[in-house]
Amino acid sequence: MILLKNILNEISSNKSYEILSxxxxxxxxxxxxxxxxxxxxxxxxxxxxxxxxxxxxxxDDVAYEFNDWVELSWKEQVLxxxxxxxxKENQKTMMQRKFGNANQxxxxxxxxxxxxxxxxxxxxxxxFRLLEGWHRTMAILSLGNNGDRDPTKWDKIKIKAYVxxxxxxxxxx
Length: 173
Description:
Blueprint: H1 4-23, H2 29-36, H3 42-53, H4 59-65, H5 67-70, E1 73-81, H6 88-96, H7 102-109, E2 119-124, E3 127-132, H8 134-142, E4 157-165, H9 169-172
Parallel strand pairs: 2-4
Antiparallel strand pairs: 1-4, 2-3
Helix pairs in contact: 1-4, 7-8
């Protein structure tokens, strides 16, 4: 049995993809697929609000609303980090989650440093804000555990990331 709800969800998903792919045409494909198109993520919810307010909104209207995000410059890099390099909010979340579970850490141990599937971060000054890839990041950072109880004093570990920079980072921070 085909449910009308499923058909509407598919149409909505296709429309979201069509609009957002035009708006974020300069974003790396990985950032677009993994972050922008995240099923229950920020952009999906905001797009829904925009279209609810203005059902006739077009790509230009949406681009205007997301301008600070669109203006970001993305570059894939291998960084050498520990928890101290992230925002206080990110650190708090990582500590609450105890840097992931044993299974995630075991998977991370099998990787050559800096060869992980990329995570997605914003960079402002010398701090990073983790946007996507929480489990990977926590597992990889846990490899720097040198016995110190304070994760901000663990050894720095190589991690591959898409890093967003630019004058509008502070607006989306």
